[in-house]
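Handout for the seminar on molecular recognition.
Each group receives one record of this type.
Step one: identify the two inputs.
Step two: read the structure output and locate the region that could contact glutamine.
Step three: write two sentences on what you found, then compare them with the reference statements printed after the record.
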Amino acid sequence: SRRGLTAVRAYGTLTNKSCDRTNSVIWRCDDSDSDSVGSGSGVLSGTSFIVKDNIATKVGYTTAASKSLHDYQSPFDATVVRLLRHQGSKLVGKANLDEFGMGSSTTNSMFGPTINPKYDNEDRIAGGSSGGSAAAVAADMASFSLGTDTGGSVRLPASYCGVVGFKPTYGRISRWGVIPYAQTLDTVGILSKDVDIVEKVYEVLNQYDEKDPTCMTTKVRNNIVSTAKGQLTIGIPEQFIIEELDQDTKIAWELTLHKLVQLGHSLKVVSIPSIKKSLSTYYTLATAEAASNLSRYDGIRYGYKSDNNNEDDTIVSSRCESFGQEVQRRIILGNYTLSSESGDHYLKAAQVRQELVQEFNQVFKLPHPLLENELKLNNCDVLVSPTALSKPPTLKEYDEKNEENFLNSYLNDILTVPASLAGLPTISIPINGTGIQFMTQYGDDSILFSIARDVL
Ligand code: GLN
């Protein structure tokens, strides 16, 4: 094994008997390794962290839970890892995930599924795709963890595992060294039991990085006005009031609304019609980007190479042998969307996305830092909704539903993808056994921490 690394599991087999039942951490760092230890001083000294295995670390491997990258060793740390270590935090391991971030369960992994630590006597899913990152902090293995959130992958597992999960505004946190899934949506998010720690980590990571061409420029950052603390107008988008919400989730949402009123905030039902089209829009755009991204793993330029040496078959065999079923499905869906036979699905989806961006913008009081000629219809500071439809299903229930129809697993993202498509900052906090998410205007991330603290 590589210097500084202990394999906790390999290919779904337990290699370390002392490892816990959650299967949330797939590589553990050795204490002696200097590449994992923080600088000793800094605002995060005394804390420890775990990183989703699609984020590059010098120590250990960076596999994205895919056989195609099973032996990939990064020569560098991702910017986010470098910044955290520089502020004194200690890297303790790498977390399990759905292969390349594609999924809502952390069951699509070459390391086997992650089990939710919140439930002692039954095997429930942790949510995904950052299920390992959520389960690891829920099980107290580190002070905080990093995940990635493309369409809800930090917030959904945070909700299922009972921890805080934060997705920043698109472009706020550097993605240099993060294995891409869908670049127009990917963000790096933060998970912890403690909202103060999430905020502290955010403050360290919230900076321009010239290595990431999609990172928000300093000029835009300086132009952003933030919502001031105090009495806020909180919007409830009516499109989130759907019959699929289970009873406990509705109760948690109501409790949150009561608490907000008690705190002196005012509530308002608002309408964002394009939320209804978000799920199909998301799965059209995300799969198209994924198909294009993953074309680099052909066994010649990058990734696993098949033993089948017949020249014509190398690429096909390498990809078929190394990508899991869900990843192959996304590639097929994405290539269909991008092909001429599909009509103009991709362009239509991009159009709906723009409409959604405009509609979200109309309900917020603050200006959008990247838009001009804005029409304002409502005066909301913050929006609130549940993060997930229900508590997590058991592994068995999840598999059965998925086998019935793979689209069932896509439904779990219905509440999280709208903010992702619009690039908005969002935080999910545990209320009464489930996650409640707050969303704000593009760039207005910091108000989320104070509202989360007040409601918790
Ligand atoms: N479940 C969604 C998907 O599979 C979101 C994943 C993510 O945010 N990485 O695309």
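Reference statements: Residues 398 and 404 are 10 Å apart (CA to CA). The two ends are 43 Å apart (CA to CA).
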